[in-house]
Every structure is written in structure tokens, then in C-alpha cells.
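Work Package 3 (structural annotation) set out to generate three-dimensional models for the target panel prioritized at the project kickoff. During this period the team completed the workflow that converts sequence records into C-alpha cells, so that structures can be stored uniformly alongside our sequence database. As a representative example, we reproduce one entry of 500 residues exactly as it appears in the project archive.
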Amino acid sequence: MTRQTAWVVAAALWLAMPAVAARGADEVLTEYLAVMIDSEKVGYMVNERRAAEGKVTTTSAMEMSLNRGGFPMTVKQRSVCVETAAGKPLSFETSTDMGFGSTRTRGTVAEDGTMTLERSSGGTVAKETRPYPKAALMPEGMDLEVRRHGFVSGTSYELISFVAEYASGARTSMTVGERGTVDLFGRIAEGVRVTMVQAFQVETPMGPMDVAVPVVLWVTDENRVLRMDMDVAGMKVTAYQCDQAFAMSPAKSTKDFFDASLVELPKGVPATSERVTYVLKAKPGKEKELSIPTTDSQQVAAGPDGTVRVTVVRQKPKSSQTMPYAGSDAGALASMKPTAYVQSDDPAIVAAAREAVGDETAAWGAARRIAEWVRTNIRTKDLSIGYASASEVLKSRQGDCTEHSVLTAALCRAVGIPARTVSGMAYVGEMFGRKYVMGGHQWTQVFIGGQWVDLDATVQNVSYGPRSIALMVGNGDTMDFLSLLKSYGLFEVVDVEVGE
């Protein structure tokens, strides 16, 4: 599931996209950047600022084309923010397309500080009203604040930046560094180095997780971006200012993200294993960043010499728990609600869930039937879809592990079984000339008999058992992937201990 890599890179770049430098009252300014991963061009970013009649509209767009196991995948994101000339937020809209349809969010900000949101995905629409993030700055407001502080070396300050994709604010620290020159494909420009760190609190089913997204910017004194540098999932991601023709020229990357996402093991993991301990070693400089979650099937402990021991056991649920869930566990109750990507209240999802469950009344039996129904009914199993919601998957009957996971979670929730998604690594054996490897994977967990049980609709026996490592637990929504910044691509497996 190399979309883990793709989405983490896309999300990090999108969050780091700075504002377009402010100009005259009625002027249009457009900036173009070429996006490179490990020195290969994969896409572009475009920022446009348009001022008219006392309002400023900032339109940002990004497109990346990637290769996943021989299948091309395109990630497209776009946002439009409208503010007053003084930087007061008025409205926004954003869209994300990863291969099958798009997810859109529209929002308006009222005078009393409330924000009205409308989210649409897979034909479903959800509306809500909540407070606009306090003091959060949209692009124009952020640019005005950055220019107010100036670019004197040693200057540091904090602000709250508005992230339209998630309709939330991010605590953002800015530190001005030295002046110097930047090589822009042979063109030398003078600029100043600014380190920007956006801090998010990602709400997961296991509680809030703090995630930091650092980026190094080279900008002019007018705050025009010359270059952006990031280290994401072990890859060097860079965006360079350039002309329109080069920015929007076809991507030339030959890098296969499926191959790049694989993790080699020192030995194989038999399918019959009951318990497996994976000994992880953080890559140099990533020791403080690495964070692996503990679940009911996975225990994490510190090992010698800075290693991390992750022990995964095969679960054997025996509960006769019925549906719908009637307990009081807060995490389970939260994992019964519909979300933007897990639309368990979609009438088509509800009907499919009832069909899958049939006359089964026990929750575990029903969950197994749902997983088998998903495995059978997703007929086109390939890597061509970037990321689709449950409703979209039900219509297309196409996708890989992430589509299986979100549809399974939605169907389970629709019949009253608490369900959540899990992203991590799964053992795949030999691949791309390497003998023992794990690859990116996503599956589902259901709450049965007081514990979260792994459920995998991509395999007939519904579980990889101890042949997988969970790196992130989420609700199937795109913001979940931000928490992968604390694990994905940050470690190697130095030993494997297999128990019968």
C-alpha cells in the first residue's frame, strides 16, 4: 500500500505550501514550483493571489504523478481561501483527488467566529457548524504576519496557520536563519533561510497524537518562495521556483514507490506463527521521532542498544457479543460514527452490510462475513486507485488494501460493530528480487469481547496475524496519515524472533 508514502508526501508538501507574497490592492500574482523527490521531478505546485474589491482570493494547487508497482497514480489537491485585504478569514474550499472521484470541503466563517462546513465524498454530503480555529491565519493573513516580523537573522515567532484540507489550525513556529544563494536549476538567486515547523494534534481512536511537520524555506525579502526542502518518510522532497512551462511539464520520475516502501527482514515469517517479535532500529537521526503504537495484538517495549521490540500475537476471539454494540467503551462508541471516508450512514452502505451479514447475530461472525463479502465483491484488485472513500469503493468495486479496509470498517459500523482502520507493514515474502520483505498495508480492527481484533479483508482467513506491524490506528480519513510521519520510513528491522 504505497499510497502511505504518496499520501504522507502529498500531505506534508500541501501543509508546507507558503502564502503568495502580497502586492497591490488589485493585482494578480502567480508562482510556480517544480516538485522533486530524490532529484526526480514528480509534479508541480501553483499559487495564485488575486486582489479585487477589498478581498483577496488565494488559490493553491498541487499535482504529483507517481509509479506504484507498475501502476501510475496521480494525486491532485486544490484549495481556495477568501479573506479581506487585512487578512480576515471569510471562506474556503478544498478538494483532494487520488484516482477515483474527489473529496471536497467548503466552509464559511461568520462574524461570530463560527464556521459552517460542507463535506462531500462518494455522493454523500455531511454538514456541521463549529468554532473557527482561534487566531488561525489563512494565506493572506499569514503573509502579512510573516512580512511584519521581517527577515532579520535570529528572529523567531509563532502563529496559528489555517489548514483548509482539515479545516483546522496548526501551531506554527518560524525561525529566520542566514542569508545566502539558492541554485534554481542553474539560475542563482539570493534569499534568506526560514525554518517553519507546523505542529498538529491528530485525533486518533487511541487518543490525540502530536505530529510536527518541519520544512526549510528559502524566500526573498518580499516573501516569495525560492525553494522548499523536506525530509519525508526517508525521502528528500524539494520544490523549486521555476517558470510555468517547466513546472507543468510531464513528471519524469522512474522511482517505483512500491519498491521503495519495502522493508527487508533478516529472515522469513511463517504463516503459522502464533507470536513474532520484530526488533526495530531507528535510522540515524530519527531516534526521537520514531513512535510505534500499542494495540491489543501488539506490544511495544524498549530493547538494548536503542532498539524497539514489537511483539505481535495471533488473536483468537471467542466472544458471542451481539449487535449493535451496547457497551460503554469510549473508543468503541466513537468508532461507530460515520466519517468523511467511512460513510456508514450511506443507505447503500447500510444495505450492503445487511446483505453481507445475512442471518448472523454474533458480532465476530458478522465481522468475518463482512470481510469475506468485501474480499469477494471488490473485483478489480490493483494499485490504480490512490485513495477512495467507502461509498466510492462500493460503487466502483475496485482498489487495493486501503479500499478493502475503509469499506470493511463502514460496513461493520453500519450494523453496529465498532471498527477502525490500521496502517502498517505486512509480510509479503519475496518481491523485487529481495527474499524476505514487508510492504505497506492497511487493514481493519473490530471491537469484540472488550478487545480490538485485527480483521483483513484482503486475505481469505481474515488476518495476517503476527505477520504485520501496526504503525497507525485511525478512522479511515486522510488526516490519519499525518501520524505516519512518526514511523513510516524511519526504521529498519534488524532481527525477527518467531514463536510457535
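DSSP finds nine helices and 24 strands in the chain.
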